[in-house]
Write a structure and sequence with these properties.
Radius of gyration: 14 Å
Helix content: under 10%
Order of helices and strands: EHEEHEEEE
Distance between the termini: 29 Å
Largest sheet: 5 strands, antiparallel
Shape: globular
Number of strands: 7
Number of helices: 2
Strand order of the largest sheet: 1-4-5-6-7
Length: 104
């Protein structure tokens, strides 16, 4: 698994750089997110949860059954939508209520 960063969508807020536990994401001179060494990425998805514009996506490779799909998160208050795409086309959405996350 690896993170894909669409620098055209990146707004340079830097939130992804703060939450990356491996300090792998940094901002370029153009104020765009970039991952320093993709092989070192743990696939923890911390950066995805922080990105407000969907510029960061998790590539779901064939090794995890994704066959080229990508995953990204969209937060709306207590609601978090995880969207699975194929070629920028949404294929599935998982909606979670953060208030209920530890309910069970």
């Amino acid at each position: 698994m690896s993170i894909l960063i669409n620098q055209n969508k990146c707004i340079g807020c830097g939130k992804c750089t703060v939450v990356c536990p491996g300090n792998l994401v940094h901002l370029t001179k153009d104020n765009k997110a970039k991952i320093s060494n993709i092989k070192d990425c743990w696939g923890c998805c911390s950066c995805l949860k922080e990105c407000l514009v969907g510029a960061l996506k998790l590539f779901l490779g064939a090794d995890v059954g994704g066959q080229g799909y990508t995953l990204y998160a969209k937060d709306k208050g207590d609601i978090s939508d995880w969207i699975i795409e194929e070629n920028e086309t949404p294929k599935a959405k998982i909606t979670l209520n953060k208030k209920d996350a530890n309910k069970y």
